[in-house]
């Protein structure tokens, strides 16, 4: 599965964007990012992001649950356990990060881990707005390119 | 422009994903990522990625151009200048990275900078396959969640 996704992404990355000459051609070495294509690098970065989003959402939930139960958030074991885990373990690989939390012995860690697992799936499938991000990143690249070019031309004058 | 994108992303991030009770609700603190929403964090990460992709594509182009001209790539000033800049300056902010390259005094740096600028726009607009990345990240989260859950259940038995 992973190999076939990788192969398709490489084919796509090697595409000739505009017909004809050099100006619009974009040839990306297929292993440019530690052996990964740009699409796979983006997939991994978003996977990390979704895991971090889900963890922060569960911390917010546990804080609200504590307050609803008449406690301070810091008095909730789940809140404290997850907050500490997030602070002490930066997410490099979202799945390794999840696995380590799920393997811990205390019940509170395992309960929050299961909720983070559930939320990151919901977040990826239903909440994160891929289309808006596509629009935003293209609009950002255009406006930043225009700004950089205008500063460049100003310096030449 | 930036402020209004930020505001819309926050509204989206606060959406209730499934109606009703706790299971499907995803409430993401709007400033979860150094004051940014997840969509803005994703936009910035993709902006960095596109800048890196464009730089690597220009290095490949300059290498090919050198070979086509009967030289070794290392004999091309543009190839050497950009390769060294990429190696010595990890991209944290894609625009600051581009600006520093465009401000350099030597003609080779400025020429490759202009080409990187052009290519990252083409790459964002025409080459990068957002839809495939969306499919891949959702499929990856699903299969990794299934795997983590199955390992968790095995440990309980």
Automatic annotation (TrEMBL), chains A, B:
Q: Does the keyword Acetylation apply?
A: no
A molecular-function term among this protein's GO annotations: protein folding chaperone
- Keyword terms, alphabetized: Carbon dioxide fixation, Chaperone, Photosynthesis
The reply on keyword Chaperone is: yes
Gene Ontology process terms (BP): carbon fixation; photosynthesis; ribulose bisphosphate carboxylase complex assembly
Taxonomically, which superkingdom?
Eukaryota
Output this protein's name: Chaperonin-like RbcX
């Amino acid at each position: 599965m992973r190999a076939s996704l990788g192969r398709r992404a490489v084919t796509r990355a090697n595409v000739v964007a505009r017909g004809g000459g050099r100006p619009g051609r974009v040839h990306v070495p297929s292993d440019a990012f530690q052996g990964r294509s740009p699409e796979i690098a983006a997939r991994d970065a978003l996977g990390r992001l979704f895991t971090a989003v889900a963890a922060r959402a569960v911390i917010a939930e546990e804080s609200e649950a504590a307050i609803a139960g008449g406690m301070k958030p810091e008095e909730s074991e789940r809140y404290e356990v997850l907050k500490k885990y997030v602070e002490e373990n930066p997410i490099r690989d979202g799945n390794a990060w999840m696995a380590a939390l799920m393997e811990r012995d205390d019940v509170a860690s395992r309960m929050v881990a299961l909720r983070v697992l559930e939320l990151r799936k919901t977040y990826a499938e239903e909440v994160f707005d891929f289309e808006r991000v596509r629009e935003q990143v293209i609009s950002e690249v255009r406006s930043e390119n225009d700004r950089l070019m205008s500063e460049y031309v100003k310096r030449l004058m």
